[in-house]
Specification:
Layout lengths: L5 E4 L5 H9 L3 E4 L3 E5 L10 E4 L2 H8 L4 H9 L2 E5 L1 H9 L3 E6 L2 H11 L5 E6 L5 H8 L4 E11 L10 E4 L2 H10 L6 E4 L2 H5 L8 E3 L5 H12 L1
């Protein structure tokens, strides 16, 4: 009997998504290779518009101890964000999303070209990439940054030899590589930025069309069905 294909996911999957993989006979090992935690922050010196590049930042703002007072103030502002799920979370909570893109670099371009007269407050995490702030600086756009959550690496040794590994962030790649090596495994990545973190290590990369967990799972199913 053929040995089942072993998939390692660097985050705990939604049970329904995991089920999709199991249904086609894949064996799934999953673990959270990064941990995010909301941190307390002061909402001072807010600019005209707001930028969110992750759902984590939105969750942190929504769960702020003084959110009753803060959220109405924030809802009056235009919001720019990265990711369809981030956009949905903001819209569902009454925020006015002006523009959203799949990647920070694309958002920076839209802001620099079309919305460059506004000033921005960027809600970020401690391990954020420099892409957006650097692009805004370069375009001479006024912005400040408030760190609202912390990401920490939680590396662990995976003992099962894997045929494929699923990566959802550059930090997840970094964390995985602290305890494990990548040889011939196919690496499924949620997006370009995550794939970039692997470019010196392997060419064996499949990037999701849309940067969502669902699209990563879809790619895995198409590959192994």
């Amino acid at each position: 009997m053929a040995k089942p294909i072993q998939i390692v996911s660097t985050k705990i999957l939604n049970p329904l998504l995991k089920q999709e993989l199991v249904k086609i006979g894949l064996e799934v090992t999953e673990a959270d290779f990064i941990k995010t935690e909301n941190k307390y922050f002061k909402l001072e010196n807010l600019n005209e518009s707001l930028i969110f590049t992750s759902q984590n930042a939105v969750h942190s703002v929504l769960s702020h101890p003084e959110s009753d007072k803060l959220i109405p103030k924030l809802r009056d502002k235009n919001v720019f964000c990265v990711g369809l799920k981030t956009k949905s979370l903001l819209s569902d909570n009454g925020f006015n999303v002006m523009a959203y893109t799949g990647y920070a670099s694309d958002l920076a371009e839209i802001i620099s070209l079309i919305y460059n007269k506004e000033s921005y407050t960027f809600f970020s995490g401690n391990l954020r990439r420099d892409t957006l702030p650097e692009a805004l600086k370069e375009a001479g756009i006024q912005f400040n940054e408030i760190q609202v959550y912390d990401t920490s690496l939680t590396p662990q040794k995976i003992k099962t030899p894997a045929d494929a590994i699923l990566f959802f962030s550059p930090s997840g790649v970094e964390s995985y590589l602290k305890e494990n090596t990548i040889k011939k495994e196919t690496c499924f990545c949620i997006g370009e930025t995550t794939a970039e973190a692997l470019h010196k290590i392997t060419k064996n990369i499949i990037i999701a069309d849309q940067p969502t967990v669902e699209n990563v799972i879809e790619d895995v199913i198409n590959e192994y069905k």
